[in-house]
Amino acid sequence: MGSIVAENRKSLMLFSGRGFPELADEIGAALGVAPTPTDAYDFANGEIFVRYKESVRGSDAFVVQSIGQGVNKWVMETLIMVDALKRGSAKRITVVLPFYPYSRQDKKHRGREPISARLVADLLKTAGANRILTVDLHTAQIQGFFDGPVDHLFAMDTLAGYVERKYAGRPLSVVAPDSGRVRVAERWTDRLGGCPLAFIHKTRDPMKPNQVVANRVVGEVEGRVCLIVDDMIDTGGTITRAADILYDSGAADVVVASTHALLSDPATEKLKNSRISELVVTNTLALPAEKHLDKITVLSIAPLLARAIREVFDDGSVTTLFGGLS
What we know:
Elements: E1 12-16, H1 21-31, E2 38-42, E3 48-52, E4 60-64, H2 71-87, E5 92-97, H3 116-127, E6 131-135, E7 150-153, H4 156-166, E8 172-176, H5 182-191, E9 197-204, E10 212-218, E11 225-233, H6 237-248, E12 253-261, H7 267-272, E13 278-282, E14 296-299, H8 302-313
Parallel strand pairs: 1-4, 4-5, 5-6, 6-7, 8-9, 8-11, 11-12, 12-13, 13-14
Antiparallel strand pairs: 2-3, 9-10
Helix pairs in contact: 1-8, 2-3
């Protein structure tokens, strides 16, 4: 006999970064597997050390890292975690990034600028990642930056289901905060049964990040609940200005649905003093207690991530989770 035949066994192992371990615990609870015990700490000079307390040899490893405040630290920790798995002989390494860092830097607007979203993909690949699983990329083209499979999940069903239940029976319009999000807003109108679509015409100064000038609203909004949809809320300038112009145009209520709640300062103060009735987000990023306003509703993304991880592990289809949407 010229070969040895071994039983083909697969083992799913879950690993949690320190960015938001509660999310990894939620995912583990949904999967029925606890995150692998890990030693992770910082040296006095800021260097990061990671060591897994159990063997990872031959495992199908899923590294969950929620990269919020302290972006660069958590990116580096993720790379170190992946490197440790590669050197520990994990069979396949999937990096689960609920929020993909540097996603807004996905192209060059002017000369001598980086494409940092591509750099992050290259770093993950070099570290040893075989696959990326992420939620609501800023632009779909980022999938092409990584030399390997990218599973792009959508939080729309999670958010839309809540909106349908909460605002049932009231006339609804979906609003894109700018022309660049119109395609996403169109998907929302389809999901919500073909309600009217509107968008905010705005201008942005490329020399001044996070500063937007909203001009006017285009579409049917008078007397309706206006649902602003976006992938992320950072400083809150875009949505608070959009809410003002919608109310000035006769909107009855303004609700915001967004996947990623970055809420960088002074977002909390802006939202608190804004005319927005409710902000619905997911927990792709940790939301500190001091930023958890009464008007913010947080929905868990863990069940969706757990289902996707299970499909990847079983060599199933992630696309079927969204009815073929990609």
